[in-house]
Amino acid sequence: MPAITDSVQFVKGIGPKKVKLFEKLHISTLQDALETYPRDYEDRTHITRIADIADEDRYAVRAILGTEPKVSRIRKGMTLVKCTIFDESGSLGVTWFNQPYITAQLRVGQEYLFYGRVQGFGRVRQMISPQAEKVAENDQNPGRIVPVYPLTAGISSRQLAGWIAQALTEMSDTIPEDLPPKLRLDHQLPARDWAIRTVHAPASFEELELARRRLVFEELFYLTAGLA
Q1: Beta-carbon count within 10 A of 190 CB
Q2: Residue 226 and residue 219: Cα distance in Å, rounded?
Q3: Which residues have C-beta within 8 Å of that of residue 67, sequence separation ≥ 6?
Q4: Contacts of 146 (CB under 8 A, 6+ apart)
Q5: Strand (E) or helix (H) holding 74
Q6: Are 96 and 102 in contact, with CB atoms under 8 Å apart?
Q7: Closest alpha carbon to 7 in 19, 25, 17
Q8: How far is it between the farthest Cα atoms of the chain?
Q9: Neighbouring C-beta atoms of residue 69, cutoff 10 Å
Q10: Tell me: the pLDDT tens digits for 89-131?
Q11: How far is CA 134 from CA 4, 109, 114, 137, in A?
């Protein structure tokens, strides 16, 4: 099992070519990857019924794939994939641009959590190029907070999130603590291992705020110590 000081190449799916791309993000080791914090988060915890979509905005919709996704080529280098999804309140058209591979990932009758921007109104309303995650049977709360990472050509935020999650799962040891116990106690700071794991996969925004507070405190503490 990899340790925090090992190369990112220890994570399954990261080969020599990907290592070169990671170097553009200044990531060489698992520690570098874990300290590459999300630049933003998508709140997919608030699931909206299709009938309750009111404005052009981003929504998380729990719905069933109602029609087979069909690929059409509107011009050279441009493809559209279209289908319809539905829940107990209504139906909604979905369109993906230049993602023909999505047809192999979706199955009619399966329930998914779709997250994306809805455009248009009434019957012409469409969800544009959403992320789609399969909803497990009997999963009452499929929504989650999704991290968004800084990117480079060849690495998507979703890929980076998956690799970091895998690294956190496979690591053979915990992330070393670097603040004195009394300092943590005086300022009510959580452990560094918990903070880093939480900032990459927060269960709630309250936990995320606590994790961020710990990491910001650590950064300012060492900056102040260095200046002293």
Answers
A1: 15
A2: 11
A3: 83, 84, 108
A4: 41, 42, 44, 115, 131, 161
A5: strand 70-75
A6: yes
A7: 19
A8: 65
A9: 21
A10: 999 999 999 999 999 999 999 999 999 999 987 677 899 999 9
A11: 31, 11, 9, 9
Residues sharing a CB contact under 8 Å with residue 107, sequence separation 6 or more, in sequence order = 65
Element (H, E) at 83: strand 78-87
Of 170, 216, 180, 181, the residue nearest 195 (C-alpha): 216
What is this structure's pTM? 0.81
Residues in the chain: 228
Distance of CA 218 to the CA centre of its chain: 25
The whole-angstrom separation of Cα 105 and Cα 9 is 27
Tell me how far apart the alpha carbons of residues 73 and 190 are, in angstroms, rounded to a whole number: 53
β-pair partners for 70: 82
**CA within 13 Å, CB half, 15:** 3
SS3 for 160?
helix
The answer on pLDDT for 41 being more than 70 is yes
